[in-house]
Predict the structure.
Amino acid sequence: MHQPVNRNAMLYIDRPPERHRLVQKLQSITELTAEERQALLDLPMTVRSYTRGEDIVRGGGIPSECCLILDGFACRYKLLPDGRRQIMAFHTPGDLPDLQSLHIQTLDHSVGAMMPTLAAFIPHASMRTLTARFPGLMHAFWRDTLIDAAVFREWLIGIGRRDAHERIAHLICEMLLRFRGVELAPDNTFRMPATQGDIADALGLSNVHVNRVLQDLRRDKLITWGNYTVSVLKWDELQKRALFDATYLHQVSRAAA
Amino acid sequence: MHQPVNRNAMLYIDRPPERHRLVQKLQSITELTAEERQALLDLPMTVRSYTRGEDIVRGGGIPSECCLILDGFACRYKLLPDGRRQIMAFHTPGDLPDLQSLHIQTLDHSVGAMMPTLAAFIPHASMRTLTARFPGLMHAFWRDTLIDAAVFREWLIGIGRRDAHERIAHLICEMLLRFRGVELAPDNTFRMPATQGDIADALGLSNVHVNRVLQDLRRDKLITWGNYTVSVLKWDELQKRALFDATYLHQVSRAAA
DNA sequence: CGCACTTTTGATCGATGTCAAGTATGGTGG
DNA sequence: CCACCATACTTGACATCGATCAAAAGTGCG
C-alpha cells in the first residue's frame, strides 16, 4: 500500500469479461432497464492489474477517471502522519470506490489492492455522457454513493459503540451479504482476502486482539476463518452476536440464509 | 431524543427569513448562479420548531420530505438495542441532514434536535422538480451528500485510530470551519450546543473522559469551552494536536485563521 | 427554592494495546 | 524438490487508556 502506483502490468482490454459485475452490483441496489444494462456494458474502460499492497488510486490527486473493481479485492484507506492506518471500506468486484471523484476534485483517501486485483478505469467524460443520457443510471450512481455513506455510518457505530466481538461479527455479516449481492458467496462461504492486520485497521483494533476474537468465534463454531476464506456456520447466532440489522445495506433483494 | 416526534409547535411559514442559510451552505461548497439561488429561495417549505431532545426525523420511516435545518443545532444518531447511542453527524443551519431520503427509501437513522431548532420540510416532489430543472443544483446536492460521506470517513479515522485528545481537538477544528462556512463563527467563537455526554456519544468516548480531556485543553489555553460556547484560542496548536487537515471538508473558500 | 440536568472529581476496573517470541505457511530460487 | 525467506498467525506477559461507578458541586429554570 506504500509502494509506487502500478507501473507495468498495464493491459488494455476493450471489453473485459468481468465487466458484467458492474451491472450485477447496480442491480443489487436498484432496477435497471435493458438499455441501461447495455450502456453500462458499452462503457469504454482501460484495465490494469495490481498485486497486493499496490495503490490503485492515490489519495491527494485529482482523478480524471473513475475506477471500477472487476476482480479481486480492494480497500479505501487513509494514513495518519505517524503511520496509523484506518481502512474505511472494503470493495468487491462491481464496486466503484472513487465514484465521488466525479463531483469532488481532490481525492481525500487512497484505494489499495488487497490481493491480485483487476481494476478498470472509466473516463469521467464517459461517465458524464452516460448519466446525462440515462437519468436512471445517474440515480443508480447517486444511490450507490448514498449507500456507501450508509455503510460508513454503520461502521462508525461499530467502531464507536460496539466492542471487539460485536465489531468483528458485524463485519462478517456485512461482507457475507455484500458478496451474496454479486453472487460470490455460495454456501455462505466467501473469500476474504484480508489479513488479521487489515481487519484490525478496518475495525480500530490491534492485530493481536483480532486474532483472539477470531479464535473465540471459531471455538464457538459460528464461523470458519482460514486461508482467506470465511464460512458462516451459524448465521442467526452470528447476527445476534453482532447486533446486525441489514437495513443499512439497502439491498433490493437479499437471498435468505 | 426519545420522546415522540414533535406534535404541536407547528407553524406554517411560506418564506422564513432563515431560508437563505441553505443558499449560504451550498455556496460554501459550490458555485451557484443567480437563478439557482432564487430557485432555492422559492422552494415551498413547511416549518416546525423543536426543543432539545425531540426527534426531527425518526429512523425507520419512509420520508416524503427532505428536512432543512434553518436555525439551531441537530444531530444524526442511531441507537443500539441496549441503548448505546452513536451520534454520526452534527448539523448546523443550512444543512439537509436527510437529503439521502430522496434516493433511499427507508431512513436508517434518526435526526434529533440538540437545542431549540427550526426545521423546514421540503416535499420530495419539489426537490425532484428543482433538480430536474437545474442540473447545477442536482450536482450541488450530490456534491453535498458526497462531502457528507467524506466527513463520515474522517470521523471513522478519528474514532478508529485517534486517541481521545486528538479526537476532541479534531472535532473542534471541524466545527469551527463548518460554522465559518455559514458565517456563524465570528472571532473563532461559535455555539456548540452539545453536552459533554453528546460529545462522548459522537466520539465513542464516555462523558467522564470527555470532561477530563476538555479540562486539559482549557488548562493549556488552546480553547475556551463553557456555556455551550467554544472559542479557539490557539488555532495552529489545536490543529497540530488534532492532526487536522481540512481537505476532507472540500470547502471552496475557507477563511484564514 | 427546589428540581433536573450537567459538570466535575475520585477510585477502581477491565478491555484492548504493546512488546516479544515462537510457529505456521506459502512463494522463490537453486 | 528442497532450503530459505518473508509474511502471517499465534501465544504469553504486561501496560494503559479510557470505562464505570458513585458522589459532590454547579447551573438554569419554573
